Amino acid sequence: MSVSGAGARPEAGVSSLRWEERPEGPVLVLLDQTRLPLEEVELVCTDVPALVEAIRTLAVRGAPLLGLAGAYGVALAAARGFDVEEAAGMLERSRPTAVNLGHGVRLAVQAYRAGLRADGDGARAAAAALEAARTLHREDAGASARMARRGAELLDELLPGGGGLRILTHCNTGALVSGGEGTALAVVMEVHRAGRLRRLWVDETRPLLQGARLTAYEAARHGMPYSLLTDNAAGSLFSAGEVDAVLIGADRIAADGSTANKIGSYPLAVLAKYHKVPFVVVAPMTTVDPETPDGASIEVEQRAGHEVTDAPSLPGAGGGFAVAPPGTQAYNPAFDVTPPELITAIVTEEGVVSPVTRDALGELRTRSRSG
Ligand code: MRU
After folding, report:
1. pTM (2 decimals)?
2. Any binding-site annotation on 62?
3. Which ligand 1 atom is the nearest neighbour of the CA of 301?
4. What is the ipTM of this complex?
5. Per DSSP, what are the bridge partners of residue 2?
6. Residue among 79, 73, 70 nearest 115 (CA)
């Protein structure tokens, strides 16, 4: 893996991941999200162990982008002559909760295997894996645009009157996690373009600050009116009547609609229910997992305690020092699960499910497969 500081900032939007053919062989170039917002630095992955490390450290993160990373990772292994099956296993195991990761890996592996079966040619099989990754990338961008439109229409229906909207969001769900503009933040972008965004409330999202570091970064680039709050300030914001809707993404949606997302999403859903504010999940169909029957069956990633016991370490800005006594035990789940009865609607590129039930989600999946 190598690191470079140049060329990481395209003029419009952000490019979180790209495939590049270089004289020494193909590489996967990632915008290193651990360095944002202070530095825009690219990571160049030449092999799967480097990519796995980037996934584990959250240099590349967010469910749809993990799907792309998984698919391109398989293509990278194939193009560089590594053992594709072993690479696929390593990638799938690198983080457990976001269903998109395994989905992306399996798509590329299937394309690779089919290529090998067709004519036994490794180079053509590698090309087939790369084409599968590129197709997923294009589809993700398309899904993002459709979710944005559907989500904005839903907000018009739920909150008619044409006034400005105050939207609360958690973690980061924008272009940094997607081939397009993202999921929940793509809806916010659409509302902003329509001139309807009065304020975006950005939860800082402890412990790794995806809200403060990444969502605020994207909101600022797009000139949105936004304010950052500590996660535990959300309650006072609701009680002051300052939130019109909550929009979040998802890492895995079980068959019954239970939704795993960044730790801190569930308390927002409880707050939203109490204050009668719509709580909307925005996610592509690739995040809906029919194999996981319910919320209790979702594996929630547990992360290292130092992420809680130490201040976040930001390049050039210090941090990384202990904020708790030596030997302190930490509880650090990366995600929590919100039950369907707390979710007003799930917005996908194929349609909106509201109320959220196992049957309604199942019907949407059937419709989208036959459509
Ligand atoms: O641990 P992370 O930063 O990968 O968690 C990301 C989230 O929880 C996002 O909200 C989720 O992946 C949806 S992204 C569209």
Report:
1. 0.95
2. yes
3. 1
4. 0.98
5. 44
6. 79
Beta bridge partners of 197: 165
SS3 at position 366: helix
Crossing angle of the two packed helices 48-56 and 84-93, in degrees rounded to 10: 10
Give the residue, by CA position, lying nearest to ligand 1 atom 15: 173
Burial environment of residue 149 by CB neighbours within 10 A (0 to 12, 13 to 18, 19 or more): middle
Which ligand 1 atom minimizes the distance to the CA of 66?
4
User: Among 34, 57, 101, 177, which is best to mutate for testing ligand 1, by the most ligand atoms less than 8 A from CB?
Assistant: 177
DSSP state of 211: I
Residues 6+ apart with CB under 8 A from 296: 337
C-alpha 289 chain-centroid distance = 15
Q: Which residues, 6+ apart, have CB-to-CB distance to 49 below 8 Å?
A: 90
Q: How far apart are CA 168 and CA 247, in angstroms?
A: 6
73 is in an annotated binding site: no
Ligand-binding site membership of 210 (annotated): yes
Q: Give the residues surrounding ligand 1 with Cβ less than 6 Å away.
A: 58, 61-64, 98, 171, 173, 177, 182-183, 210, 249-251, 261-262, 334
Contacts of 154 (CB under 8 A, 6+ apart): 280, 345, 347, 352, 354
Atom of ligand 1 lying closest to residue 334 CA = 1
Does 145 show up as a binding residue in the annotation? no
Q: What is the pLDDT of residue 312?
A: 85
The residues annotated as belonging to the active site are 251
CA distances from 301 to 37, 56, 202, 323 (A): 25, 11, 23, 23
Number of residues in the chain? 371
Which stretches of the chain score pLDDT less than 70?
1-13, 316, 371
pLDDT digits over 349-361, tens only? 999 999 999 999 9
Q: Tokens representing 332?
A: 């650090």
